[in-house]
Amino acid sequence: MAASTEISPLIPQMRWLLYVAAFLVFLAGLVLFVFPLRTAEWFAWTVNPPMTAVFLGAAYWSSAGLEVTGARSAGWESARLAVWPVFVFTTLTLGVTLLHLDRFHLSPDAAPLAQVATWAWLAIYAIVPVAMLVISWMQLRSRRLAPQAVAARRPVLPTALRLLLMGIAGVLLVYGVALLAVPVQAATWWPWPLSELTARAVGAWLVGLGWSAAQGQLSGDRRTVRPVALTSVVFVILQAIALLRYGDALTWASAQAIGFLTVLLAIGVAGGWALALSRTPEARAGAT
Prior knowledge:
This protein is mainly alpha-helical. The protein has helices spanning 12-34, 39-42, 50-71, 76-99, 112-141, 159-181, 183-186, 196-219, 226-246, 255-278, 281-287; strands at 3-7, 144-148. A two-stranded antiparallel ribbon has the order 1-2. Helix 3 (50-71) packs antiparallel against helix 4, helix 3 (50-71) runs antiparallel to helix 9 (226-246) and helix 4 (76-99) runs antiparallel to helix 5. The radius of gyration is 20 Å and the shape is globular. The two termini are 20 Å apart.
């Protein structure tokens, strides 16, 4: 006799929201990562030094991969690993924006493109979190019972990988919250100088990335962790390129730089490991 199993295919509204969000963060990453010296003219706020701009640009571009992978997922079980980190990040960034609104290019004296970018920024960060909540509610209501003759075996993540993800999540979440709450003090542990605004902007990203790592660990499933894994690998590759371009902003022998590189290495190892596991025959068979 077939057993009834609750399934939740990804609804079209959620799929398109993730695609639109991916396009928007790709545009933000394009300015920050490719043109870090032009943020005063082309971005919503002036980002200095350039190393901060390329760091943020790398984070935006890697999150585009997270959102595209989530949008391409067949079901909510995998896509939610993209949705909730994006919701957390956009909500925090809206708060950071409102707190430092005087630093944004709203003045008539600002460059025209920078003014357009600022108003677009405000609209996006005001709309996206609300849209995520509404469409997530629609997604959760779409669950249905479907008969399955044989229950699929869950190909789980190894314990060592789950512990590594837990450690990464803990570090990113704790330090991200510190940058948001006490940016001046917490920024002394960052490997290059940060202003209050850039410290909080970085903090929002660290909390979002930490949330993503925590969800990957909690899912414990090789099938669904792919969006998190792919994002981690892309993030580390882009950060390596950023360091090659503007690494002179760091004092390489300092504890801050060593800690930064250690965390990047851990993210790369965890992401590569999880990505490899998500492509094994066992994981692919479980996904079907």
